[in-house]
Design a protein that fits this description.
With 102 residues, the protein is mainly α. Helix content is 60%, strand content 0%.
């Protein structure tokens, strides 16, 4: 290995050290900030709110389980059955009209 190759290799290593993200965390999308900080910690900010994805997923699972139960057992709750739920989900809705009713 001649001197120019050694110098090139040394410069490459310096550049890698200069642009390495080992000293500070990489850029993180805001959606994943809470998960990233929970995994790797952040000594500057300790007030990062927890996400609600788990709660929303659990609620969606409960609603789906309730719907499946209504469908299989032919239950009717407050004069609503699974067929009406499917019909209402499939109905097109005018957002401006709904907003006026609020």
């Amino acid at each position: 290995m001649n001197s120019s190759e050694k110098r090139r290799k040394e410069l490459l290593e310096q550049t890698r050290r200069l642009y390495s993200d080992k000293r500070e965390p990489p850029a993180v999308h805001p959606r994943y900030k809470a998960v990233y900080h929970r995994l790797y910690g952040d000594e500057n900010d300790e007030s990062i709110p927890a996400g609600t994805f788990g709660l929303r997923l659990f609620l969606a699972f409960l609603l789906f389980a309730g719907f499946v139960t209504m469908d299989k057992q032919n239950y009717e709750v407050l004069h609503v059955n699974s067929e009406r739920i499917v019909k209402e989900i499939g109905t097109d809705m005018d957002v401006a009209e709904v907003w006026k009713e609020l």
